[in-house]
Structure formats: C-alpha cells, structure tokens
Amino acid sequence: MNTDETALIDGCFRVMEQKWGTWVSESKDGEKLITSATCALCVDATRWYLKARQENAFTKCGTTYDGTANGKL
After folding, report:
1. Residue 37's closest CA among 59, 17, 58, 10?
2. How many structural domains does the chain have?
C-alpha cells in the first residue's frame, strides 16, 4: 500500500504512520479521522466511517448514551 503522505486514497483521505507505530487517517482538509494499529485497518475503518458519515448513519441511530454515573456506585 502506498503510504506517501501526499497521496490521497480514494481522492478523499491520506494515511500516515505516527512515530509510535500507529496509523492515522486525515481528510483532504486536515481533519483527523481514524487511528488504527495497522495501515490496512486504518484505510478500511476510514472508508467505512466516511461512507457512514456521508449517509448520515450516525444521526439515524436514535440511541444515545450518557457517560455519567447517577446515584451511588
């Protein structure tokens, strides 16, 4: 896989290896998208994420979760 930081994948995003060995994807506009353990996983996850975002899949879900704990633990 071409990991040249200037090359766009699918004309939409690029992936770069970070100094600690993980991979990060970035949109054409410089928005950080996905961090993954391998280059291939980063590409696959970014493709899925961008497709879901384009189809508004995240707003159709209807289920939200709250990260707070109410009451005694």
Report:
1. 17
2. 1
* Full domain range(s) for residue 44: 13-55
| Cross-strand partners of 9 | 13
The Cα 40–Cα 44 span in angstroms is 6
Question: Residue 42: is it exposed, middle or buried by C-beta count within 10 angstroms (0-12/13-18/19+)?
Answer: buried
Angle at 65 between CA 59 and CA 70, to 5 degrees: 155
* pLDDT tens digits, 30-66: 999 999 999 999 999 999 999 999 988 777 656 666 6
Structure tokens, 3: 């990991």
